[in-house]
Design a protein that fits this description.
InterPro entries: AAA_dom, P-loop_NTPase, ParA/MinD_ATPase. This is CtpF protein. GO terms for molecular function: ATP binding; ATP hydrolysis activity. The chain has 17 helices and 14 strands. With 422 residues, the chain is an alpha/beta fold. The protein folds into 2 domains: 146 residues, 3-Layer(aba) Sandwich (Rossmann fold); 240 residues, P-loop containing nucleotide triphosphate hydrolases (Rossmann fold), CATH 3.40.50.300. An 8-stranded mixed sheet has the order 9-10-8-11-7-12-13-14, sandwiched between helices. Strands 1-6-5-4-2-3 form a 6-stranded parallel sheet, with helices on both faces. Helix 1 crosses helix 5 and helix 6 packs across helix 16. It is elongated and about 75 Å long. It starts with a strand and ends with a helix.
Length: 422
């Protein structure tokens, strides 16, 4: 299906209110060649090539516009996607007719032009153009146009990946990740899966009181077998809406992975699960960095001390620089208020990070200890506890779903009748 894209002139959404409408599915491994006429468009395409969603695409940029493209493909095969910038109406149609004589079947063409006219658009569609974008364009316009070529409009939206990582070991990042995932599944009724990436010492199985015979290790060590059916067999069902891809938590083998080891697992989970929560261990390797940068939303969990402040700042800055077209990472403070422990106030923490925490979770050893030892979530022990509400608020912020299902009451039928009369 060919869509007519206009330049997005609306302000970028606030990072505090993420929307599912701006979610762009990553492009597969494709070759993209752009032929630009202006340095501004070339710069936008270059910036788009650095976006995480085009991380698998191979992008090449040349100047010269339509004429350069026609000349280039007289003696060379065409890529999966061609981006053409042109300014005149007649130049577009005439150039496309000439390009058609040298273009390979199956190549998709995106045209960047300055003429906003429906008749021109119809002519472009008739000639097989996949997308027409009104100049001037930004990097996100190019990213959206290329990625949408490979997202079927009839298919369900690609799942959103939420990565949760601790700024330091022992800050309770896994506990936060598991409770937030529980809130996403139970309170927001969003089908979710928790992927425990700490294969040696993961605690998701214990926290959800699950002991599955298989899990994520079976997938990462058998990349050729990874598909939807294979992952479905590895999932352990925790609730109606929550599943677990558990870590083995054994030391009988060494878990050294390449940077792309988990790519096929994440890509496959995206096709079937609306929400994937990654419990990322506190370590710095090629694959953990890649998992964080490739996630749609990121939550850093930190304790209020100097080492956590430094690490949060470093992670925050690196992710913002690596993801210029995404919302900034979010962070929360955990284990706040430990008796006799000097702490950095939340206001000072926020001043250094230049961003406020989305939650400040108090130190509650009794309820958290009971939950951990019983294999339960905080909400299962106390649905009205203040931390239960905090986990729900974090879940809402990360998913962009601010409304929860309203519980019915004895007055509901009467209220509905009164509304109907109005």
């Amino acid at each position: 299906m060919i869509t007519y894209s206009r330049q997005n002139t609306e302000p970028q959404p606030d990072i505090t209110a993420p929307s599912t409408e701006d979610h762009i599915a990553p492009a597969p491994r494709v070759s993209v060649q752009a032929f630009c006429e202006t340095v501004e468009t070339a710069a936008a395409v270059q910036s788009a090539g650095e976006d995480r969603r085009l991380g698998k695409a191979h992008l090449k940029i040349q100047m010269g516009g339509m004429a350069a493209a026609i000349e280039a493909y007289r003696s060379a095969p065409t890529p999966n996607v061609i981006i053409l910038e042109t300014e005149g109406r007649n130049d577009i149609l005439l150039g496309l007719d000439q390009l058609a004589t040298v273009c390979d079947a199956g190549t998709r063409v995106i045209v960047i032009g300055r003429i906003n006219d429906v008749m021109l658009y119809r002519e472009l569609v008739r000639r097989g153009v996949s997308d027409y974008v009104i100049a001037p364009v930004g990097a996100i316009d190019v990213v959206r146009s290329v990625c949408n070529l490979f997202s079927s409009p009839e298919a369900k939206a690609v799942g959103r990946i939420i990565a949760v990582v601790g700024a330091k070991g022992g800050v309770g990042a896994s506990t936060v990740a598991h409770n937030v995932a529980w809130a996403i599944a139970r309170d927001l009724s969003l089908d979710s899966v928790v992927a425990d990436l700490d294969l040696a010492f993961g605690t998701a199985g214990l926290d959800y009181n699950q002991d599955p015979p298989q899990g994520i290790a079976d997938a990462v060590f058998s990349p050729d077998r990874v598909d939807t059916a294979f992952l479905d067999r590895l999932l352990s069902k925790c609730t109606d809406h929550l599943s677990l891809l558990a870590a083995p938590a054994t030391l009988d083998r060494v878990y050294d992975f390449g940077a792309e080891a988990f790519d096929s697992i994440f890509d496959t989970l995206r096709t079937t699960m609306p929400c994937i929560v990654l419990d990322v261990p506190h370590q710095w390797s090629g694959w953990t960095k890649r998992a964080l940068i490739a996630a749609d939303d990121i939550l850093i969990v930190a304790a209020p001390d100097l080492a956590n402040l430094r690490n949060t700042k470093n992670i925050f800055d690196l992710l913002k620089a690596s993801r210029p077209n995404d919302r900034a990472p979010l962070y929360c403070l955990n284990q706040v208020g430990i008796p006799k422990r000097p702490e950095i106030p939340a206001a000072e923490f926020a001043k250094a990070i230049e961003n406020h925490p989305i939650a400040t979770i108090p130190f509650e050893p009794q309820i958290f200890g009971a939950a951990a030892n019983n294999g339960q979530m905080i909400a299962e022990i106390s649905a009205t506890h203040r931390t239960t509400e905090m986990f729900l608020q974090i879940a809402q912020r990360l998913t962009g779903r601010g409304e929860t299902k309203k519980k019915s009451s004895l007055l509901s039928p009467l209220i509905e009748k009164l509304r109907a009369k109005k």
